[in-house]
């Protein structure tokens, strides 16, 4: 990462609430072709979330604690704050001296931009301003939120505008929190109604919706130079698993998440 930072643009996409089992199933059955073509070996890596809900998980990720590989460690991290005794900081780890990765990348010359999704990024109150407030530039509008059936399209459009307005020589760290998978997601299934509600199937349909548009995001982020991309879930969510519904709880469906990182080579 010490070679990547300063050379390439950086992209972090959190697919908010995406379950590992759903992500794996859709990749294996060809239902998310645009994502799958970038996954190393065409498969998601199984990892453990650093938190059981959005706020906690993102606070950890912005401190350098991305989802942890689901196998005995220690596992060297891509990014880490300088911290005496850290067992997951290795020679290839990008180490920053600020309290969080976002400001660390800003110190390294990056323009840091947040495109929010769920309520913790809506800037409508003190709590909703904490995470976006880490960035030099942040964007949120109702069209990006959980109630919008076209949220991800709107977020990608904003990303395209951000890149278009950025000087070519300026390095970019773009963070996008995709809200489409979060409840409510029933409207991503044709013929569904509010009364039928959300389910694992509508959750899967929301991931297919994201996949239909994520190619545009990857294209614009690689339009200037090579981009190092991280795409992962911040936590999963339960749809009646062992009687549980939702997240902010300690169930396997919540703690186990899909993860991938890869390079997006510059387009012609």
Residue fraction in strands: 15-25%
Q: Structural class, judged by helices and strands?
A: alpha/beta
Compute the number of strand runs: 12
Range of helix content? 25-40%
**Main sheet: strands, sense, barrel:** 8 strands, mixed
| Spatial extent as radius of gyration | 18 Å
- Which residue ranges are poorly predicted, with pLDDT under 50 across at least 5 consecutive positions? none
Q: Taking strands numbered 1, 2, ... along the chain, how are they ordered across the largest sheet?
A: 3-2-12-9-1-8-6-7
Q: What is the 3D form? A: globular
Number of helices: 7
Helix/strand order: EHHEHEEEHEEHEHEEEHE
* Straight-line distance between termini: 25 Å
The averaged pLDDT comes out at 95
What does this structure look like?
With 268 residues, the protein is of the alpha/beta class. The longest helix has 22 residues, at 200-221. Helix 5 packs parallel to helix 6. Strand 10 (238-241) and strand 11 (244-246) form a beta hairpin. The mean pLDDT is 95. It has 7 helices and 12 strands. The chain has an 8-stranded mixed beta sheet, with helices on both faces. A two-stranded parallel ribbon has the order 4-5. Strands 10-11 form a two-stranded antiparallel ribbon. It has helices at 20-28, 33-36, 54-61, 101-107, 151-164, 200-221, 252-255; strands spanning 9-15, 45-48, 68-69, 79-81, 94-96, 110-115, 137-139, 171-178, 227-232, 238-241, 244-246, 256-264.
């Amino acid at each position: 990462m010490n070679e990547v930072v300063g050379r390439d643009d950086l992209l972090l996409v959190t697919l908010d609430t995406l379950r590992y089992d759903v992500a794996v199933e859709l990749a294996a059955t060809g239902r998310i072709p645009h994502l799958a073509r970038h996954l190393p070996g065409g498969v998601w890596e199984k990892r453990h979330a650093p938190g059981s809900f959005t706020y906690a998980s993102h606070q950890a990720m912005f401190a350098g604690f991305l989802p942890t590989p689901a196998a005995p460690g220690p596992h060297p991290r891509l990014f880490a704050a300088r911290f005496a005794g850290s067992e997951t900081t290795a020679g290839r780890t990008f180490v920053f001296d600020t309290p969080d990765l976002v400001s660390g990348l800003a110190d390294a010359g990056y323009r840091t931009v947040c495109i929010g999704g769920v309520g913790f990024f809506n800037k409508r109150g003190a709590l909703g301003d904490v995470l976006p407030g880490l960035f030099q530039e942040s964007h949120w509008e109702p069209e990006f939120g959980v109630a919008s059936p076209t949220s991800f399209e709107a977020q990608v459009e904003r990303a395209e505008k951000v890149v278009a307005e950025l000087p070519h020589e300026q390095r970019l760290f773009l963070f996008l929190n995709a809200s489409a998978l979060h409840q409510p997601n029933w409207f991503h299934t044709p013929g569904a109604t509010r009364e039928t509600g959300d389910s694992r199937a509508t959750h899967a349909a929301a991931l297919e919706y994201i996949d239909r548009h994520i190619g545009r995001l990857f294209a614009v982020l690689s339009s200037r130079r090579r981009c190092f991309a991280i795409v992962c879930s911040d936590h999963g969510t339960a749809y009646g698993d062992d009687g549980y519904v939702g997240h902010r709880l300690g169930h396997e469906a919540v703690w186990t998440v899909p993860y991938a990182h890869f390079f997006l080579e510059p387009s012609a």
